[in-house]
Design goal:
255 residues, alpha/beta, Rossmann fold, eight-stranded mixed β-sheet, 49% helix
Length: 255
C-alpha cells in the first residue's frame, strides 16, 4: 500500500508507522513539519499539499474542526481508500461518504497519545475492502484493540471519556492548591498525576474536544450539587455515584 498522510503531527506519524503501509508520504500546511515527519519515519518522504500525485490510500490526520474540508480537498488523491484519525466520527464519516465515493472509507480514533501506544482504537467502517481490512489487521498486529462502532455510539461515549473526564481533571487542577507531597492520599496523588499529564499536552486538542462534545456542563452541575449538599443530600449523591451494589448489578443476576 502506497499511503499519503495529510497532517504531519503526532497522530499522523503514528498511523504511518502502524498502518502497514509499504511506502509513506507526508503532506502538511507546514512543509517543515512534513519534512520532520518524513525524517522520523523510516523510508518516508514528503509530497506537496496541493500536489496531484495519486496514492493507494490517504489518511487525514488534522485537527478535528479541519477534517471535513481536508477530506473534501484531498480525497481525490486516493485511488482505493480514504481514512481519518481525527477523534470525531459523525462529521468525519459524513465527509468521507460525500467526497470519497466509490472508495473504501473508515474513521479510526486512537484513544491514546502516540507515546502511549498501543491501545484501544474504535473504527467506523463506512465502506470496507482489502485496504481498510489490511490497515485494521496491521493495527491489531501492533497490539492495538481495534473494534467497530457507529458514529452515534462513538460520539456519545466521547462525551463521558473525554469531555467529562477532561473537565473533571482540569477543574481539580484549577482548584487545587500546592501541598506538601507527604499529605497526599491514595486518591489525591494519582489525581494530581492525572492533572499533570493532561496539562502537559497541547491545549488546542482539548479545546477542540470540549467544543465538539457535550459533557462539561454536566460535570459542573454535579460539582455544584456536591459542594452545596447538606450531609443527607451528600450521602444520597454519593450513593448515586456509587451505582448499584455488586449484588444488584445485572451481570450478577445470571450467575
Amino acid at each position: 500500500m502506497d499511503l499519503v498522510v495529510v497532517g504531519a503531527g503526532e497522530m499522523g506519524r503514528w498511523f504511518a508507522q502502524a498502518s502497514g503501509a509499504d511506502t509513506v508520504a507526508f503532506a502538511d500546511v507546514d512543509p517543515g513539519a512534513a519534512r520532520a515527519a518524513a525524517d522520523a519515519v523510516e523510508g518516508a518522504r514528503t509530497t506537496p499539499l496541493d500536489g496531484e500525485e495519486s496514492f493507494d490510500a490517504l489518511c487525514v490526520a488534522v485537527p478535528m474542526p479541519a477534517v471535513p474540508e481536508a477530506v473534501a480537498t484531498h480525497a481525490d488523491r486516493a485511488t482505493d481508500a480514504v481514512v481519518d484519525v481525527s477523534g470525531e466520527m459523525r462529521e468525519s464519516v459524513a465527509a468521507l461518504a460525500e467526497h470519497a465515493t466509490g472508495r473504501e472509507r473508515a474513521s479510526f480514533h486512537p484513544l491514546f497519545a502516540a507515546d502511549n501506544a498501543p491501545g484501544n482504537v474504535p473504527v467506523v467502517v463506512d465502506r470496507d475492502g482489502p485496504v481498510v481490512e489490511g490497515i485494521r489487521d496491521s493495527l491489531s498486529a501492533a497490539g492495538n484493540r481495534v473494534f467497530e462502532t457507529t458514529p452515534a455510539e462513538h460520539d456519545r461515549a466521547m462525551e463521558t471519556v473525554q469531555a467529562k473526564a477532561h473537565t473533571a481533571v482540569l477543574a481539580y487542577a484549577l482548584a487545587a492548591e500546592d501541598v506538601d507531597p507527604r499529605f497526599h492520599t491514595p486518591l489525591s496523588a494519582p489525581l494530581s498525576e492525572l492533572a499533570d499529564q493532561v496539562t502537559g499536552n497541547a491545549p488546542g486538542v482539548y479545546a477542540d474536544i470540549q467544543a465538539r462534545f457535550d459533557g462539561g456542563d454536566a460535570v459542573a452541575v454535579a460539582a455544584r450539587e456536591l459542594a452545596a449538599a447538606d450531609p443527607e443530600t451528600f450521602r444520597a449523591l454519593y450513593e448515586d455515584a456509587a451505582g448499584p451494589s455488586t449484588s444488584e448489578r445485572p451481570e450478577d443476576a445470571d450467575r
